[in-house]
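Might I ask for a little of your time on a matter of protein folding? What I wish to show you is a protein chain and, alongside it, a tokenised description of its three-dimensional fold. I should value your view on which stretches of the chain appear to form regular backbone elements. You will find the record immediately after this paragraph:
***
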Amino acid sequence: MDNKYEILRILRESDASVSGQELSERIGISRTAVWKHIRSLEEEGYGIEAVNRKGYRLVGVPDSIAAREVGSRLTTHRMGRDIRYFSRIDSTNQYAKRIAEEDQDSGKGEAAADGTLVIADEQTAGKGRSGRHWVTPPKEAIAFTLILRPQLAPEKISMVTLVMGLSVVNAIRSLYGLDAGIKWPNDAVANGRKLCGILTEMSAEIGAVHYIVIGVGINANLTWFPEEIRSIATSLKLELGRDVNRAELIAAVMEEFERLYTMFEESGSLRSLKEEYNAVCLNKDRPVRVLDPHGEYTGISRGIDDSGALLVEREGGAVQAVSSGEVSVRGIYGYV
């Protein structure tokens, strides 16, 4: 962790001014070096108030999702301890896969560690499920990808996507008080419209997973959507009537994901998360249409089971476990 990063963290966590001497002692650098780092942070757009005999106080932050701004907000142990930031990139998932595959033997350096976070202000070739284009305009949306190296069988990886979906919804509800929920399996939704998309990709062989990358796109401060998705998409800004701090939201999602993912790892299933997930699952106890390739049918959703499958009660009372990798589910009267 660089010294400027640590100064920003200390100032962010303090309610009062922090003296140059205290910063010097806590970080192990000279007071002159502290002053130079403070000046550098100011040049990057941070508002830092300097008061004689009191010290420095953080009074303003730029609209930034750079590594220093996100990282200084994190208290996680695994998620986001290594952050790679880009102002513009083709796809955070594509880059994450490249660095996840690098190794010393290939001469490309050490492979990215578990929990590495890739963030971009703009994506030019972002994609959603089924290869659909995902819009990430600069400075308005959130696009990040998390690299994980789970000790899990390949057939369990689909559950991680539900864990991320729950993490996003929990973070939104906690930060903004917005009544967001999940459209099974992982879409974050507010007022019947989509706020977030998640795409998980895996590198594996029989019985073993090398790594997975979880790409997350959140409609943070967007106010315009292409015609083809306008009726089903929304943003936090449109729902709240104000801009949201994107770095704050990314950090909140990482904190929540670390908590939930740890619970998931311990059990190897969604058993310990099922109740929490079902509490915000918008499909639960509502009519749904199951778009199964073997034949479309309708029923009542009863929430997920331990594996993340959606339990659909069909006419007559029989309950069908629906896997997200096989079918799509829609509400009878709309998107949800």
